[in-house]
Write a structure and sequence with these properties.
Aldehyde Dehydrogenase, Chain A, domain 1, globular, 7-stranded mixed β-sheet, 6-stranded antiparallel β-sheet, 34% helix, Aldehyde Dehydrogenase, Chain A, domain 2, single chain, alpha/beta, Thiol Ester Dehydrase, Chain A
Length: 678
């Protein structure tokens, strides 16, 4: 009996037994051999839902953001050690070693990125502060602030077939950091690769119980259980995105829905990028790469290649010549650059789309159905020849509306910047566009006008080409998504990706209450003075511990010496008459950095102790000028305390406020220090 792919649900592996009606057969894309069947028959979806809520939410949300980040780092290392195994499985999906690196190592890399986001951009807490404090009353006793907390639900990710590892992990990373349990629904044709990675994630023992479940097969019954605290993150076709957006749970019960849909992305050759320029060669190489990597089965692939009318023939010749150097065949062979598409069904869909485009106003320059049939006959798998189409005119609707999701691109000419902008926007919203030009003026005009229609734009030229990751490579620190046809959603984007799965709440309270709720001292809240806070370890230090310094009088000699010693002889510090003529100064005034230096002398505890280093200063603002004879005092307050999970020290952010003899604020800033835990 053919193997049926198992799912991981409610803390255990589930495999449908017997003959299953409706099970989907999956074949090796390279030779058509039957691999297994996929079905979710017999899964108790109510139990899946309950396990995520009762176990997953509870166990995950016991951890702080930093603790989740440390787990992701360890998990990434664990999976990277097993990457070779994933590549062996990946070959059966038609993926070359080069393609697999983007999917497998690229996917694992997102875990490291989100580990860094959690540990460097978020507090070691379960509450994340969003923005600053808003003063809501005259005397400052009523203030407000936004906080982000984990939603009390689950996140369902529904992934496309083309990136079974990256597509799963780039969603799992931010979901896990946000504290939301994940249910993975992989695409059927490549579910076996996703399953292999998820099995190792579970086997690692690193993840809290309920953090992840995997459903191979139909996930539709789960939607009946989703509600307002839940989210669906989808990657795939625009048609499926439209269907999911109309689900009852989304429309009636408030389940959040994020879509990243396939789009007709463009790359444009700038008017300056004539044959013989580096930019011309970069454009041709970029289009060929996007046609051959993953056999063009990428949501970011270049479907529309815009070229100046005068370079049409040169571009076509260069593309055809470059494609002839790309080895086609079994992805297990090192020489192969273009493997098969994922299945015979996908092959049929791609060829039908090519036929539809050509019948509506385009012609084949290379590739097409006949060449693809010859390949499939000779190689025996789901092969599609690399196909370049030439649109019979720039405004042929088919090239802007129909996507052949394979190694296919259409050349489209433009005659002016205005027309190029309109053509790019004709895709009705795309994930990515790229412009290859060394003309900054053209790039500025073009990019600013097409940006509203695109989630990401690459500007490629000779200066950034060596380090550029290319047109089709989304990066975890930047958003991946796009407006309109592209789905209207966003994925990744560093901290932004985490925030998608959290609840933003405005808190209105007194400074003391807001300090307690947010874990960060707020101006106007209680301070505790007494023992010098620099003598306290993290174990003893508390938010609100403070020091009020003695006073120091600033003299004219101090100002003159600082000017001579540092070389900062700006007239406001050295010339009484010129300074008095400036409407911002009453006469000669102290240097701002002299004030900061004096403040440090007033609050620093000089003896060896728990404070290991001062590593920064943020938000420095000079408010009231300091004249000779003014007396300064500084108040230093422990604002935020962040122990590090993997070190014997932590970070302390101190609020520093310097005032003069009238208690007028002179300077405000945050001091950043490293402090020993014990």
């Amino acid at each position: 009996m053919t193997e049926i792919l198992s799912s991981y649900v409610a803390g255990d592996w589930h495999t449908p037994s017997g003959s299953i009606d409706g099970a989907r057969a999956v074949h090796d894309a390279t030779n058509g051999q039957l691999l297994h069947q996929v079905s979710s028959a017999g899964i108790d979806f109510a139990a899946v839902d309950e396990y995520a809520r009762s176990t997953g939410v509870c166990e995950l949300q016991k951890l702080t953001f930093h603790q989740r980040g440390v787990i992701l780092k360890k998990l990434g290392a664990y999976l990277m050690e097993r990457a070779k195994k994933y590549h062996e499985i990946s070959f059966s999906t038609g993926t070359t070693k080069r393609d697999g690196f983007v999917d497998i190592e690229g996917g694992i890399g997102t875990l490291f990125t989100y580990s860094g986001v959690a540990r460097r951009q978020m507090p070691n807490s379960t509450v994340h502060l969003d923005g600053g404090v808003e003063r809501l009353s005259k005397n400052g006793t009523f203030v407000g602030r936004h906080i982000l907390t984990p939603r009390q639900g689950l996140a369902v990710q529904i992934n496309a077939f083309n990136f079974p590892v990256w597509g799963m992990l780039e969603k799992f990373g931010p979901m896990f950091v946000a504290g939301v349990p994940v249910i993975v629904k992989p695409a059927t044709d490549t579910a076996h690769l996703t399953r292999a990675v998820v099995a190792d994630m579970i086997e690692s023992g690193l993840l809290p119980a309920g953090s992840i479940q995997l459903i191979a097969g139909d996930v539709t019954p789960l939607f009946d259980h989703l509600a307002e605290q839940d989210a669906i993150a989808f990657t795939g076709s625009a048609a499926t995105a439209k269907h999911l957006g109309g689900l009852d749970c989304v429309r009636d019960r408030g389940t959040r829905f994020f879509a990243e849909a396939d789009s007709l992305n463009f790359s444009l050759l700038g008017p300056d990028s004539a044959p013989g320029t580096q930019e011309f060669d970069l454009f041709v190489s970029g289009v060929v790469a996007e046609m051959t990597i993953k056999a063009g089965q990428k949501c970011t692939a270049i479907r529309r290649a815009f070229v100046p009318e005068q370079h049409k023939e040169a571009v076509a010749e260069a593309l055809i010549a470059k494609l002839e150097t790309q080895g086609v065949g079994d992805p297990r062979e090192k020489s192969t650059r273009l493997g098969p598409v994922v299945s015979d069904k996908q092959r049929t869909d791609v060829l039908d789309a090519i036929d539809e485009i050509t019948s509506a106003g385009a012609h084949v320059l290379t590739g097409g159905r006949e060449a693809s049939d010859e390949l499939a006959k000779n190689l025996g798998g789901a092969y599609v020849a690399a196909t370049v189409l030439q649109a019979d005119g720039p405004w042929v609707d088919a090239v802007h509306d129909i996507e052949a999701f394979g190694p296919v691109t259409s050349l489209i000419t433009y005659s002016s910047t205005e027309e190029a902008v309109r053509l790019a926007a004709r895709g009705r919203g795309s994930l990515v566009g790229s412009v290859v030009t060394h003309d900054a003026e053209f790039a500025t005009e073009f990019v600013r006008q097409v940006a509203p229609w695109h989630g990401r734009i690459l500007v490629l030229d000779r200066d950034d080409a060596e380090e550029s990751t290319g047109h089709g490579s989304p990066l975890p620190t930047l958003i991946h998504g796009g407006p309109g046809r592209a789905g209207g959603g966003e994925e990744m984007g560093g901290l932004r990706g985490v925030e998608h799965f959290m609840q933003r709440t405005a808190i209105q309270a007194s400074p003391d209450m807001l300090t307690a709720i947010g874990g960060e001292w707020v101006a106007g809240a209680q301070r505790r003075t007494g023992q010098h806070p620099f003598t306290k370890t993290l174990a003893d230090l508390r938010v609100g511990d403070a020091l009020e310094s003695e006073r120091r009088t600033v003299t004219l000699e101090d100002i003159s010496h600082f000017a001579e010693f540092t070389g900062d002889t700006f007239y406001a510090h050295t010339d009484e008459e010129a300074a008095a003529a400036n409407p911002f100064f009453p006469g000669r005034v102290a240097h701002g950095y002299l004030i900061v230096s004096f403040a440090a002398g007033l609050f620093v505890q000089p003896d060896p102790g728990p404070v290991l280093a001062n590593y920064g200063l943020e938000g420095l603002t000079f408010i009231t000028p300091v004249s000779p004879g003014d007396s300064l005092k500084v108040t230093l307050t422990a604002k935020r305390i962040t122990p590090r999970e993997t070190d014997e020290y932590g970070e302390v952010r101190w609020d520093a406020e310097v005032v003069n003899q009238k208690d007028e604020p002179v300077a405000k800033y945050d001091v950043l220090t490293l402090v020993a835990k014990e």
